[in-house]
Amino acid sequence: MRTVLLRLLGALPALAGVILVTFLLTRVLPGDTASYFAGPTASAESIAQIRAELGLDRPLPEQFFRYVTALAQGDLGMSLTTGQPVLKDLTARLPASVELTLAALLLAMSIAIPLGILAAVKQGSWADHLCRIVVTAGVSLPVFFTGLLLVYVFYFILGWSPAPLGRLDAFASAPPTVTGLYLVDSLLAGDMETFRASLAQMALPVATLGLFALAPIARISRGSMLAVLSADFVRTARASGLSPRYVILTYAFRNAMLPVLTTLGMVFSFLLGANVLVEKVFAWPGVGSYAVEALIASDFAPVQGFVLTMAILYVLLNLAIDLLYGLVDPRARMDA
Predict the structure, then answer these.
(1) Are the C-beta atoms of 103 and 91 separated by less than 8 Å?
(2) Each residue of 120-136: pLDDT tens digit?
(3) Does residue 136 contact residue 130 with C-beta atoms inside 8 Å?
(4) Could you give the 3-state DSSP secondary structure of residue 158?
(5) 196-210, pLDDT tens digit by residue?
(6) Which residue, of 12, 45, 97, 327, has the greatest Cβ tally within 10 A?
(7) In the beta sheet, which residues pair with residue 78?
(8) 86-335 has which fold?
(9) Where do the domains of the chain lie?
């Protein structure tokens, strides 16, 4: 508990920096919120009136003070695009992004870690060459290109995938909200039809993000496993007559996973950035597409709320990774 509190307190300066930088960037970006919402035919007086109502005519320090004061009360502001509080919009859209990102991360880990270990154990084999190809493809292909290519092949040509138009097709209804994750909620409700429909809609966007995340995880897994296999304690275990399978799974695997766990925080941050493009390609109603639409309209509050939410998620995930790191390596708990 003490470690968790120390980690959270240590993240406060970073979150404060995120709030300050995001506020300043939204003010210097091109575009005028008042002019956008007043319309192209609005007079200068109308634009000035809207700017005054939004508080954009006040000095930046005063605007920042009012923003931080509202933020301390849990008020992220009002979205001019949707006409609803930003907190309400984010609460409604965040589960869609979380479900997509976590599913992609789990898919990438389930493929990349065994592939990386197999490539390290059998260097020069087909698994090693496949690992190199997958890593190269994941690094080289932009996520929007991969998404469009998958849509073209599996929806347009083969017809295996449903239309990329959100979390459910037009013939399925959302399950009763418990977690906001359609796969989990449909299982809790025992609605297998909605579960299959949701899984079908998720297949292509999850595969797109999963390929993007698979590359760094596979590369780190292979490199870490190679380093561990050449370590003295592994050679000693082999010299003791232990079976190769036991040495790899018991001695090498656990130590090789430590750098992989550290990398997961970085991979998650990459997925958050790539998620914005994937949501636009697949019309996914998540916070990424919400932030893009707000940014186009020069709507400051949703953009600031989105960046702050992503920063908090990043901090929480890294905290979870640190705790998991301590479970895998007891020395980390002792250092803490």
Answers:
(1) no
(2) 888 778 877 888 887 88
(3) no
(4) coil
(5) 989 999 999 999 988
(6) 97
(7) 85
(8) MetI-like fold (1.10.3720)
(9) 34-75, 86-335
